[in-house]
Amino acid sequence: MTVPRRQVLVAAAGAVLLSPASATETQVAALIKELVGDATLREGRVKLDIPLLVENGNAVPITVSVDGPNRVRSLHVFAERNPLPNVANFYFGPRAGPAKVSTRMRLATSQTVVAVAKLADGSCWMDRIELIVTLAACVE
Amino acid sequence: MARVLINIPKEARKGEVIEIKVLISHPMESGQRRTDSGQVIPRKIINKFVCTWNGDEVLSVDLFPAIAANPFLSFFAVADVSGTISMTWVDDDGATQTELASITVT
User: Fold this and answer.
1) Cβ(A53)–Cβ(A97) below 8 Å
2) Interface membership of B73 toward A (CB under 8 Å)
3) Which of B56, B59, B69 has the CB atom closest to A91's CB atom?
């Protein structure tokens, strides 16, 4: 059986487009699932603060805070379309104050950033924010 | 030894929430970039940061290549007793650096 030339070309183009040059939503989802385990992940409590329009992906200011009376055990940040999905994990010790951290991150392209918080009572909360990056962090 | 800027209040009242800000001079080479000849520039980042207050942990952070060059961190601690705030971080090549700051709690 001969495969039409057009089909071959389309398949080749697809392979190039789909090659995993960046992390994917499924990769991030798997990481979050591993983190959350059996607990249910709910939206809320966590607040991600990043500019919606990022002018320079090399240094994007990001602030993550968690509300509520419960102590926060850990806080995890993921970027869905960076080459590597992890951004940072924060673990709060007995001396920690309110769970609010700021740092600066790299963003390879326009994408969704996800933050997941694990509280001391075992519950898990998340927030996600979709943003546009005009100048990407240099990967080349 | 990387140059570091640390911003911690010198004094605090007991029970007060204080902000700790750290800026470390470091290239945080992500391992994703290539030279003009196509060779991968090896990854060299700070991968762990720990802050303690008189030995009790305040915050520990896992850093990944997605953290920008010259990493900046800001976080909060509750002032309880006078003492030393210690910040330690570990480089990919195993080098560690520790910076200390003292605080008086009244």
Assistant:
1) no
2) yes
3) B59
Give yes or no for B14 touching A (CB within 8 A): no
* Regions in chain B scoring below 50 on pLDDT: none
Cβ atoms of residues A105 and A45 within 8 Å: no
Interchain pair B74, A103: CB under 8 A: yes
**Which of B64, B69, B76 lies nearest to residue A84, judging by beta carbons?**
B64
Q: What is the CATH number of the domain that holds B99?
A: 2.60.40.10
Domain with residues A22-133, CATH architecture = Sandwich (2.60)
Closest by CA to A102, choosing from A62, A65, A74, A131, is A62
Q: What pLDDT digit, counting tens, does each position of A81-118 carry? A: 988 999 999 999 999 999 999 999 999 999 999 999 99
| Distance of residue A136 Cα from the nearest chain B Cα, in angstroms | 12
Does residue B38 fall inside a structural domain?
no
Rounded to two decimals, the ipTM of the complex is: 0.92
